[in-house]
């Protein structure tokens, strides 16, 4: 038992010294974070519980240990402290020597033993402890205690534990903030869509919900890399696992385990129950294991209040076992999601989201239908009533487009590492279905663009035609008209990235190099085309892609083949965390700015549309258009009329000459004006002369301005209509003139 007491007393100062390279938070406590056996085979001395805490303010080490021993024996103890991949302290001592005497280990008693107490830390150690050791999150430090038989040197026990200062970048607070940013982006993007009122050609201001989720997914994927990623960055990436569909739900995991068990899966070391009792360790290049415990399950569940004798009555705590992980497996199992359950977890989360969206849209439709029955229905919502199923289909397609890259990754990973034929079948079917949906829409958009290009010489109707925009705009709405096709390289990029990360899992160098090529090609495409219609979209997405490329370059430094020191990796990981956290903060600020703009500023697309409609109304006016007197200022089009040979005209319409013209139908049966029909013309000529109506301004101009010359034979007749033809007849005697 006392070997653990000695371990407790000596552990704190050395792990503090080991933590010197990092820093920046606050606290006065260091403690072990879980434990595991580092001895192959069954040890003679079994430790069931190990909790050690060092408090700088009290200068005390508080310990709580318990275990069992098969027989009483004398031992030698060895304490080893590693920090950032280097062995910084090692000491072997005899618990029976006067200088290092530990009564409970001299000798180790048989049966159950345990102790709970505290020891003081000498000032000589405290003075050498740097303050930053208490402030750096996720310090990369491990302590190992080995017990060997004094006679023969046989290994009796080996316990390793991660040392923590209580600070970690993988916290619920960071995850809630990230989820809040994503939720705010979703709300702002939705408000922007409503403000645009579905107007064709209206892009959304960046960062959109798609931009934010894509950024979060990129950080999470970096944490899935098989390179020797430092713990500080690995824990940071864990905060964004929700964007990849990894959400822990115990009941769901148990159900997936049952499904896998019934379809050929092996649950021996690949189940949720296994993970609950395991200590995750990430394989490292300089050490056999770099330990990272699962906090929720690594604490021993039984409190041991025991005396320091053989006859203690205590409940034996549960033993934990070492579980080596790396790459995608290490990332997903930090959420207590078994490696074999990863795809099924994402599939069920996707199904739940689809169900919630479907129910929400259906409920909204029911509300609208009820509203329409009992009240005045808003005109803006009529489109939703007519296109309910299309709205649902479009929403699902949007979700597929958002998760396609992640879906490819999990499906390929399931094909490579899955053990259940049922899960593999579902992975193949869903991947084919999702890819088929995207291929179908790509073909439809491409064929539509080609059709309009043949008809009009350019495919601008993808943006200008409201019906086409309503159907397909989700793929290209934020791109310029000349780069509507850029969504195709984007889909190819998502597919390639997922295949590289999942396909090369376990091969850090190949994985990092492949992803670097994929990310660099997308960056070159963005820099070359600058496809976003808004300047903010180009700037934000190019910056995001630059950071992605830099992140992959940093991860390339972590691969074991390059042989970088652990200290260099840790510092690089911290720099990467700072850069990514800063960009995340900037995106959050921009989302807030967009929300303010949406609430306070007139929608520019609607304003532009109204101006275009007004200009079209002006261009469509004709001299006979009744809107002349309604929509225009009469003074705007007034001009001084030229003098008429027949005198001034103040009221009435322009004269309509009735001289005999051969343009009228004069064949047999042709209609002519007889004497008894002259009064009809006289009466009709007075139409429009009522003093209560003003003349249309466009008709005040003289006929000369329009190239009209008065033909001879027309003139005013006393008592007749002002524009009635003269008395002389050019037609047959006794007949009226022909209609003009």
Features:
Immunoglobulin-like; 12% strand; 740 residues; single chain; eight-stranded antiparallel β-sheet; three-stranded mixed β-sheet; 3 domains
Topology:
Blueprint: H1 2-18, E1 29-37, E2 45-55, E3 60-69, E4 75-83, E5 86-93, E6 111-120, H2 123-126, E7 141-149, E8 155-164, H3 172-196, H4 209-223, H5 231-238, H6 250-262, H7 272-276, E9 278-282, E10 290-291, H8 295-298, E11 321-325, H9 327-332, H10 342-374, H11 382-386, H12 388-417, H13 421-456, H14 461-464, H15 466-476, H16 487-503, H17 508-529, H18 535-558, H19 566-600, H20 604-619, H21 628-631, H22 678-684
Helix pairs in contact: 3-4, 3-19, 4-5, 4-18, 5-19, 10-12, 12-13, 12-16, 16-17, 17-18, 18-19
Task: Tell me the number of strands.
Answer: 11
Indicate how many domains the architecture comprises. Answer: 3
Structural class: alpha+beta
User: What low-confidence regions span 5 or more consecutive residues with pLDDT below 50?
Assistant: 1-26, 285-319, 627-631, 633-645, 663-667, 684-710, 714-740
**Radius of gyration of CA atoms, rounded to a whole number:** 42 Å
What proportion strand?
5-15%
Distance, first to last CA: 124 Å
Spatial order of the strands forming the largest sheet: 5-4-7-8-1-2-3-6
Largest sheet: 8 strands, antiparallel
Global geometry: elongated
The overall average pLDDT, rounded, is: 73
Helical region count?
22
Task: Tell me roughly what share of residues is in helical segments.
Answer: 40-55%
Transmembrane segments: 342-368, 388-410, 425-446, 483-503, 509-528, 540-559, 571-600
Biased composition (Basic and acidic residues): 691-704
Membrane topology: Multi-pass membrane protein
Main location: membrane
